[in-house]
Amino acid sequence: MNENKQSLYSMQQEVDAYIQQFKTGYFSPLSQMARLTEEVGELAREINHYYGEKPKKANEQPKTVTEELGDVLFVTMIMANSLDIDLTEAFQKNMEKFNQRDKYRFERKDGQTND
């Protein structure tokens, strides 16, 4: 992993600074959802090329799963910023939920069970 790590908060600030330089600013939530869906589709396509049964066509541009995941993250941050959502807070709440609700959902390496 990269040594130069940023927090979600600082990444959201960087994305906001990028968007603020344009007159258009943030698109509507519905337009952003369409863009996020498009980016997730591109990620799915790359996953299918690398791990599935559908190889790339000879004339298709090379892209990577990393690049497409980055696009999904970027668009997610744009959407969060426009809706005034702190992704760090959202992440922390989700981890609390998963650590409580799903603590014993899958077989654990430590052998603990919910008995």
Present the secondary structure layout:
Layout (H helix, E strand, L loop, with lengths): L7 H13 L8 H23 L13 H18 L4 H15 L14
Task: Provide an overview of this structure.
With 115 residues, this protein is mainly α. It has one domain (8-101): MazG-like (Helix Hairpins), CATH 1.10.287.1080. The protein has four helices and no strands. Helix 1 crosses helix 3 (65-82). The longest helix is centred in the middle third of the chain and has 23 residues, at 29-51. It starts with 7 loop residues before the first helix and ends in a 14-residue tail after the last helix.
Q: Bin the helical content.
A: 55-70%
CA-based shape: extended
CATH class: Mainly Alpha
Number of domains: 1
> Which structural class is indicated by helix and strand composition?
mainly alpha
Pfam families: MazG
Protein name: NTP pyrophosphohydrolase MazG-like domain-containing protein
InterPro entries: MazG-like_dom, MazG-related_YpjD, YpjD/YvdC
Domain NTP pyrophosphohydrolase MazG-like: 27-106
Produce a short descriptive summary.
With 115 residues, the protein is mainly α. Helices cover 60% and strands 0% of the residues. It holds the Pfam family MazG.
List its traits.
115 residues; mainly alpha; Helix Hairpins; extended
